[in-house]
Amino acid sequence: MSREELAYKGAANNDEAEFPAVMLPNIPGRIFDIALHGAIGDGLTDNTDAIERAIEACSAAGGGRVLIPAGIWLTGPIVLRSKIELHAAAGALISFSRQFESYPLAVS
């Protein structure tokens, strides 16, 4: 039996199980503030496009942290990319739109 199978079996039996270490991604230290990409934290303005611009700029630079500062940030779907950390600062609230047609269903 492989190590992974043993770990799963132990977890299924509520026994103490040993799992393989999780490798954390290497996130560059650059910061991309959504407010500098046009987002407005008033809880009323749709910031979907501004957040997407911040994510795109971060991705184009090779990754980093997309910062959501304090405020109430209304948005639609957020799609992250490789080497990007989405960081909500203290006092930040992300409020997702109730326009459900904006959220595509994932086909699996």
UniProtKB/TrEMBL annotation:
Organism, scientific name: Paenibacillus harenae
Gene3D superfamilies tied to this protein: Single-stranded right-handed beta-helix, Pectin lyase-like
Record's protein name: Polygalacturonase
InterPro entries per UniProt: GH28_Enzymes, Pectin_lyas_fold, Pectin_lyase_fold/virulence
